Amino acid sequence: MLHGSAVMLSNGWMRARVYSRNLKSEMLDLVTVAGDEISYHWEDAPQASIPMAFSEGMREQLKRLHVGVVGVSGTGSIVAEQLLRLGFGEITVVDHDVVERKNLNRILNSTVQDAESSIPKVDLFNRSAAEISPETIIHMVRQEAGSHKAIEVLSEADLIFSCVDTATGRDICQRLASSLLIPLFDVGVVIPVRKARHGAAAIQDIQGRIDYIQPGGSPLQSRGVYTADDIAAEDLKKNDPERFERQVEEGYMPGFGEEAPSVISVNMRAASMIVQEFIARAFPYRLDGNRRYARTMFALAIEETEYFAEDDFPAVRSDRYAAGLSTPLLGLPILGEMSWAA
User: Fold this and answer.
1) What number is the average pLDDT over the span 94-111?
2) Could you tell me which residue ranges the THIF-type NAD/FAD binding fold domain spans (predicted)?
């Protein structure tokens, strides 16, 4: 496309069109405005009001949206199933891994047979989705989030849920969201363990974090979710994959070395909160608005929930802000130029 233009009517509704290089114009089906709230302006519904949360109107709107879920393991499988049952019309799931026995206590719908056959996690979700909501379009990407295929499909999503274990995966999601102005929701769970008396292990806390990242707002880096050093440290995967995998497993319970932690109850809580955060943004119901809830953190050992406003974090605009899929892809020379699938 050569360029585009947009207009806003007095009621706040927006419409936009783009021009190709032969100067042929095309109206866009949807204009998304993502700030403290996420509003959808459909070309065929100029006078439509925002549907009430949990209503038939909400379900009708979700049918028209495409959501991406990066990581469909412990937390991600729960997030993806909620989005499926809420009624999203199109879901992309991205995960390179397969189901193993150690996953059975935290991946929804997984079975012993799935583990024995090493079924890809994205295939497992697709199978379940076909039984639950056969009309939903499912895109499966059995690759890393930083692959060209994953980036291509996720670039068409209306919003993205980041449910990954690694700083590298989160960085890709953040870069994608910044480059393409896509609302991003990121979730994390950790259960730090300490040594109690007599050397026995004891739970120090049970923590969950939910972040909503709006285009042009504070990114995950400025919120301290990950650093460049974290990404560099993960390069260990290339040199010592077994040690890296142990570190990922310990991500739930650092210091304990539990290979298959039974954390589904904590994951359920965090997954529910992050999906609810989207609903609050797209179908507003909070009495005091959404700006105060850029981040939510819970600590179950002391039964506290903290909220952080968008203004509590520095808004560091990426140099790739609204850059699209220009070269180098997502600002990473290693990714080179986008290669589109046939």
Assistant:
1) 97
2) 53-280
